[in-house]
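>> Question from a student workshop board

For tomorrow's exercise we were told to take the sequence and the ligand below, predict the bound structure, and bring the output to class. My setup keeps failing. Could a helper post the expected result so I can at least see what it should look like? The ligand is protoporphyrin IX containing FE.
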Amino acid sequence: MGRTSSQLPPGPRGLAALRAAIRMYQDPLRLLQDLPLRHGDVVHLGAGRTHVCILSHPDQMRDVLVTHNKNFVKASPHLARLVGDGLFLSNGEFHMRQRRLLQPGFHRDRLTGYGPVMTGAAEQRSSRWQPGVPFNLHREMLELTQVVVAKALLGTDLEVEADHFAQAMTTALEADLLLDRLPLPGAIKRLFSPSKRFLQARAQLDDTIRRAVDEHRRDPEARNDLLTMLLRARDTEGGTGGLTDAQVRDEAVTLFMAGHETTGAALTWTWYVLAQHPEAEAKVHAEVEAVVGNRRPEAADIPRLEYLRQVVSESLRLYPPFWVLRRIAVDEYQVGDYTVPAGTVILLNTWALHHDPRWYPEPWRFDPARMSAEAIAGRDRYTYVPFAAGPRECIGEHFAWMELILVIATVCQRWRLRLAPGHAVTPVAAVSLRPRGGMPMIAELRKPG
Ligand code: HEM
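>> Workshop helper replied:
Here is what the output should look like for this input. Compare the format with yours to find the bug.
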């Protein structure tokens, strides 16, 4: 029988579908890798009126993220309780307006001023490491990126506030996460959440932002941080004014949430690949010595740290912090010969895409040469989506690149990192792609301190 356009895509059925749904909670990375191998680039998982469609081909990335992006919305009841209507979760016209308002604050030239915040935080944190004494690098990188984004957001003179803000954010993000992930009906989950712990942490965040906004309004000229940018944002197109206080709050919490977990994960995985590949590490050291020498790295050095850029790009391919992108189809959606109904959950399978031998031969091998300008030009743009693409592409991408390169360049002037013996590193699909049980590392001094 020939396929008709109303046919659902192939995928596990009956008991196999139930098993797959359970595995989606237990070991999503394995499932996201296995399903396309078994069923192809378009896979349907369903039970009753619930439909999930997993897409793993670059054409489908382009289709959902760019060509037909208006047919897809984002939704996450768990996250919405924390970030409200901020850029990460808002949709439609409202999202477009907010994006227009925030975009100028993320222009490459505007970000240069945050360079010293990034290198300063890297120096401060790594100066606490003791040669030969194991420590959890993942925790260190998360705390570092929290300090950076909190200072970029609130300003450098609010150091204590930045610390409190970071702690409250961690508590709020992790408070009800387990409950949220359990395969229970929404009505049952709502009986147990939000927890008191979450509500307290959220109130603390709101309080910090309110105080920081008051402070900024008292002295509006003196600052050049993201909160000032939010308070000054004006809609030049519609002439509809700027952000309300509630919107400033939602955007501030959103930027903090989106800006630290991902960058912390990316830094951790980059240190991991460098520790595993001493030849690449030696090339990075030589490049940093030639371009920067012994002074502090700065934003102007970044274009000349080309090999380091390739290393980070390849680490983002192997270990993409966003291992999957989630959307909901507004209307029914036709993908190839198949159609999925309105309301289908679409999972864009970054994990399988980035490890697909059709685009990356020997996909599990670390090879920074894949990320040279020529190699990139020879590949479809949608084979690589660590920052997504289209109108909802990561707004903080330049910020992230600056932080990744400057932090690594700063730390590696002094330290070489090695995995602590006896620990097997396994990626797990959490808020971002995290190493299971952290990443114990040992720092070795490169030069007398
Ligand atoms: C290595 C670091 C980072 C990675 C890999 C990353 C990746 C991404 C991805 C894949 C998305 C799209 C998510 C989706 O469509 O569901 C996204 C969105 C976003 N990111 Fe990032 N991000 C990083 C760092 C940052 C930083 C530093 C900031 C801010 C300071 C930031 C702010 C945002 C915001 C606000 C959005 C929502 C944009 C919108 O929907 O219009 N990100 N990021």
